[in-house]
Design goal:
Elements lengths: L5 H14 L7 H4 L3 H16 L5 E7 L3 H7 L5 E6 L3 E2 L4 E3 L7 E10 L16 E11 L10 H6 L4 E6 L13 E6 L2 E7 L7 H14 L9 E6 L4 E2 L5 E6 L3 E8 L1
Parallel strand pairs: 1-10, 3-7, 4-13
Antiparallel strand pairs: 1-2, 5-6, 5-10, 5-11, 6-7, 8-9, 8-12, 12-13
Helix pairs in contact: 1-3
Amino acid sequence: MIGPDIAGIAETLGTAADTATATAQLAAETGLDVDAAYAVQTALVQRRLARGERLVGLKMGLTSKAKMAQVGVDEVIWGRLTDVMRVPDGGTVDVAEFIHPRVEPEVAFLLDRLPEAGEPVGDFTDAVRAVAPAIELIDSRYANFTFALPDVIADNTSAGAFVIGPWSPVPDGLENLGVLLEIDGRVAQVGSTAAILGDPRRALDEGIRLAGRHGVRLREGWVFLAGAATAAVPLRAGAHVRAVVEKLGTASLRSSS
C-alpha cells in the first residue's frame, strides 16, 4: 500500500505558511498518522533550513487542558524552532505574514547540557542554564484553525514566532507561578505554570522523550518552550502583548499590519 506523500504534504504546508493562505485539513484525506505526521514536520522544517534558517530549539504543544480543549485534541506534541521565528523582546511582528495568529504566555528554558531521556525532573535542574518568561505566536496553516492531531503535528505544531524575556536562574516554586497575558494593558488571560503538565520541567522531560522517539536530541544552548500556561488569544494589528510570569518577569511584543 502506498503511504502518504510526505514531501507533497510538506510542500503544501510550507506554501501555505509562505503565502499566509490557509489550506484544508490533510490528515483524513491523505491517511496521515502520527508517525507520518512527524516525518512531514521534519520535511517541512528541512525546507526552512535549506533556505538558510538554523534550528535553535524545540517547543511543546498542547501541554495544558485549556489548550487541548481549545483546539479539540488530547495528546502532548512537539515541534521545532528556527532562528527566523525569534522576535526580540519588545519587538514587532507583522500580522499580515500570518493566517490567523494567536499569542500565549509560556516558560522558556535555556539548556546548559543535554538532559538524558527519562532523567528525573528533580535531577535535571543543572541541565537548565536559565529560565525566562516567553510569548509564543501560533498560527495554524489550516482553515478556521481546526485540525486533527496528525494535521497539527505535520504543521510543526502551529509554530509561528516566539519572544523570550530576560533569562534568570530557575526559581523555587517553578511548578506554580502566577501567569498573566495582557493585551494593550488589559488582562486577557490568567493562569499558572501548573497548567504546563503540572510543572514546566515535566514538559522538558516529555519533550526529550517524545523527540527522542524520532531521533531528535536537544542540544546545548538550545531554547525549549515548555508550552502555554493559558488558552491562546487572537492577535490583531496594532496590539501590544505582554506575558507576565511571577518571579521571572515579562516578555512583550507589538504587532503591525
